[in-house]
Design brief:
Blueprint: H1 2-6, H2 12-21, H3 31-54, H4 70-81, H5 91-94, H6 97-127, H7 137-163, E1 172-176, E2 182-186, H8 190-199, H9 220-242
Length: 243
């Protein structure tokens, strides 16, 4: 992580992103500019996620779910962007595939990347107390996502699928119960969302029971691995600060 945030090299996909958003990754920012970047990006993220929930009923892969009410949509958008991820809804009964994967899972990446960027800016504040330069928010955001969160999450999702977590885009179907009868459940890209949810220390799982649900966390091995993912970046940040 120390190398990621201190490297002067920019990968080609990162350059494409910088060009698309009109950012100069080499420009140093003092704290007012860095703060404006954090707040502006977070405000746009809240608006995007809010609108996605409000038009869910018109989106493909909605599983027949209607659009989310305005107050619920704003509460969910604000909490996911702020990395608090307060889940005050039943995920399997409210959110379709597009909102779950294109909205909530994406914010699990971005909110974690913003938090890491702010932590690194704090580190630079100690190390560069004489200059007041905190780096570049957009470069920190993109690098944290592209070089740290996505690669680890891809590996994490594969491990969770191997452990038994589900990963599909199936619709609602009936599942038999041990005591007889049936219950309706929908599928989803659960393993991939679970990986970044734990890695970014996010809440808000695919299902209401969160990581206690067997589709998200099927056995002791997956449980141990998810605990490892939760601790990975916080532990690494202390060494990053030292280096």
């Amino acid at each position: 992580m120390a190398r990621v945030y201190s490297s002067e090299k920019h990968y080609r996909p990162e350059k494409w992103i910088y060009k698309a958003i009109g950012a100069n990754p080499a420009a140093e920012m003092r704290w007012p500019a860095y703060l404006r970047g954090v707040l502006a990006f977070s405000a746009v993220s809240v608006l995007f996620l809010y609108l996605m929930q409000r038009v869910q009923g018109s989106l493909p892969g909605s599983l027949g779910f209607s659009s989310i009410d305005p107050d619920q949509a704003f509460n969910t958008a604000a909490s996911f962007v702020a990395n608090t991820n307060w889940q005050s809804y039943y995920g399997e009964q409210a959110m379709g595939h597009v909102v779950q994967t294109g909205g909530l899972a994406v914010q699990n990446f971005l909110s974690a990347a913003v938090g890491m960027a702010v932590a690194v800016a704090l580190v630079r504040g100690f190390a560069r107390s004489r200059t007041g330069e905190l780096g570049n928010f957009w470069a920190d955001l993109v690098r944290g996502t592209v070089r740290i969160l996505i690669p680890i999450s891809v590996i994490g999702a594969i491990v969770l699928v191997a452990a038994g977590a589900i990963q599909n885009f199936s619709g609602i179907h009936q599942v038999g119960q041990f005591m007889g009868g049936t219950q309706e459940w929908n599928g989803g890209a659960v393993a991939s969302q679970e990986a970044i949810k734990e890695l970014g220390t996010n809440g808000g799982g695919y299902f209401n029971a969160n990581s206690a649900h067997p589709f998200e966390n099927p056995n002791p091995l997956s449980n141990l691995f998810e605990v490892f993912l939760i601790l990975l970046i916080p532990f690494a940040l202390t060494r990053t600060f030292g280096r």
